[in-house]
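Z., the sequence and structure:
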Amino acid sequence: MIWRSCFLGLSEFDAVIHFAGLKAVAESVEYPRRYFDNNLIGTINLYKVMAKYNCKKMVFSSSATVYGQPEKIPCVEDFELKAMNPYGRTKLFLEAISRDIQKAEPEWRIILLRYFNPVGAHESGKLGEDPKGIPNNLMPYIQQVAVGRLPELKVYGHDYPTKDGSAIRDYIHVMDLADGHIAALRKLFTREEIGCVAYNLGTGRGTSVLEMVAAFEKASGKKIPIKLCPRRPGDATAVYASTDKAAKELNWKAKYGIEEMCRDQWKWASNNPWGYKSKP
């Protein structure tokens, strides 16, 4: 949250950045009610609290999953939206709820940021992702294999109609993603006529799972053993972003490529092989 004043115990909030939510595709297929309860009801309650305190500026973490399996790529913000799994549908529903709220109460300013695949870590190596249990996302999984916490990387889907058979995604460095939020906040406070608008945050380039594995091996000097597994339900073949709208209207563009993403992820992993915990 962004707040303006905290004087004598009184806080006045200017805007909210809403990151909270469950985010694993496979888990959402298995436990859809958990996702509807947490993501949908939690956000509806947040809107109620914001309205109560007259805080009507929101940056919402949406997702590229709202595009489902697009008929063509790159994904443009005005594409038809058709999520393929319960997680994606929670983001799709919440985008619709946001538009309905803003339409009914025009003083709201809401920016929907459709993340593609955030990866990497802070370049210092001191701040990174530390998921509990078996990671649901590719890069934390790769890093845990690289430091010896897991024996191999399971690659879900090796028969997709892509150049190497693995799925293609648009990976974006977390620091580029952070800059995207700053750009969105700046727009909320400098433009009156915003309404409810969506922007893609990605690099505009597609990278396959196996290409990312090779890039991480190069950055780390480690061989990543892989196990080829069947496709997971709810996964799309290839999804990557058109970033023209964000460049034009937010003055934002990703600066980092997969080499820097893997470099910084490995720096975090090698400095913190057990994450924020000591070795058990």
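The mean pLDDT is 93. The longest helix spans residues 32-52.

Let me know what you think.
H.
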